[in-house]
Prior knowledge:
Blueprint: H1 3-6, H2 9-21, H3 24-34, E1 38-39, H4 40-47, H5 51-63, E2 67-72, E3 75-80, H6 85-108, H7 110-119, H8 123-132, E4 135-139, H9 143-148, E5 155-156, E6 174-178, H10 186-196, E7 201-204, H11 207-213, E8 218-219, E9 224-225
Parallel strand pairs: 4-5, 4-6, 6-7
Antiparallel strand pairs: 1-3, 2-3, 8-9
Protein name: Metalloregulator ArsR/SmtB family transcription factor
Domain Rhodanese: 131-220
Pfam families: HTH_5, Rhodanese
Amino acid sequence: MTDSDTHHPIFDLSADIARTLGHAHRLVLLNHIAEGEKAVERLTDLTGLGVANTSQHLQHLKRAGLVQTRRDGKRVLYRLAAGPIEMVLAALRSLAEHNNAQLRELVEGGAANTAARLENISREELIRRMNEDSIVLLDVRPADEFATGRLPRAINIPVEELELRLAELPRDKLVVAYCRGVRCVLSADALAILRAHGWVARRFEQGFPDWLDAGLDVEDGHYNSG
């Protein structure tokens, strides 16, 4: 690398974006926005952050060109800006998962990995089982998120309603629960409920964002897309 390369403006621009992304709350907000356009109030509910805190992080993201806004009456709606932002988020998740897996292997050894394999299902195995029609896909996100996009043939039972609606799930198939991705605990909570009541269940830990990142088919209330 030449001296002129090290001072190329693209590195300064990259560093500015990296500094903006260098906050967990902003990454969480971006992942929620990537699932569909959302108002500040909805993002506040999803993240548990205060309105002022949420708005402050959103302004940082907007100044960095990572999100755009539009008005809908009195509401301000946020969406991802143009560009490969979802690819960047996916790459960060992949790197974090890789590093976390290595650390877990060092600290806990092979037992933790064995337990994770029994609990989690990979995207590849999930696709195979979907093609075999040997599973029931359970989306445990809130109904409004389910309506904006979901895995094919998934059914929606929000996790807080699951214990009251277990009778809607068959017992003769593996139930695979999923939610918003690796930082989301809803599918883990669902797995605990299902297993406590005798269901054979696993979870697709990467969830809906990973499915989108892979360019696989999704459904919404109007159409299927690939």
